[in-house]
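In the lab's daily routine, each protein ends up as an entry in a very long ledger. A line of letters takes care of the sequence, but it says nothing directly about the fold. The three-dimensional part falls to structure tokens, numbers that each stand for a local backbone shape. The outcome of that step, for a single protein, is printed below.
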Amino acid sequence: MFDMTLIQRGARLRRSPFFEATQRHGAKAYTVYNHMLFPICFDDLEAEYWHLLQHVTLWDVSVERQVEITGPDAFAFTNMLTPRDLSKCAVGQGKYIVITAEDGGIINDPVLLRLGENHFWLALADSDVLLWARGVAFNSGLSVNITEPDVSPLQVQGPKARELMQALFGDAVTKLRYYWFVETKLDGIPVVVTRTGWTGEVGYEIYLRDGSRGGELWERVMNAGAAYHIRPTGPSDIRRIEAGILNWGADMTLENNVYEVGLERLVDRDKQTTYVGRDALLRIRNEGPRRKLVGLEIEGARIAFNATKWPVASAAGKAVGPVTSAVWSPRLKKNIGFAMVPVAQAALGTALQVDIPGAGTRQATVVPMPFIDPAKEIPKS
């Protein structure tokens, strides 16, 4: 049993409805994310990576806290938070969106679910969007209710995920299109099941709507998953880097905009209504960004997943920016990662240098990303 006193003192940090289950099933380490304890591994990270690629994994992502927006003006208000045009999002559909600040900075990159005409959830990365949304609403003149509901998601990911979900829920779930969802129950436990995930693999998320039943739901999924060799894991940074999936707080922050990090597809240029940051994003698009997040291949022996942002220099040795995420890819047999560099250093084939603590300076090259499956054929399949 992991000694929680090593990372927690008092009741300030919240525990998920699945916390006791993660303890029983051997979680080895936790971090703090969205003010909540987050299990990050049950085994060696590479072993978890291979299991994700070959079988099916269960992952407690209750730290994806929901901001729920309801009320007569919920659509108009939610549409004001993001450059995506939510009139193109049907009830029962989800969208990957960015929430932008007045200067175009990225406050968060949640998955949005539209549960009703005026009912939305934002499944959040690690930043305080609840307070931001309440601040935007305060003088908006719109009638909305903004709360954090009792909703806690699990991820079921891997090539056998569809078979497991068929065993649990039947055809209604396995026929879901990518980024669509269904409201249902499992043995009387109320859930929302989405065709989403943070792995680049076939995947689903099960959003528990009654926190008192977390242990039941976990064990129900694990028992049904035994036939498919299920294991609980933490997040696979190896796989998400291969897939070009960005991590808010590392690969992008409030200091970045969509044009810097390659998320300009999340700006609907024909959106008719205004939103926070619209003028700033129009200016940035017209002027062009000054820096870009690029893919890197880093030469030499395998590296460990970076715990700090490593310095990047030009071939001539001039400091140009940081590596934001980097790791050894067992399939590619290469060190890969992302770096934020000036536009002048962002062209494919550009030679760079990376200063790795304890390993010295390595040569690196700007390459395309995602590193694997650029068309997302795997998760959409």
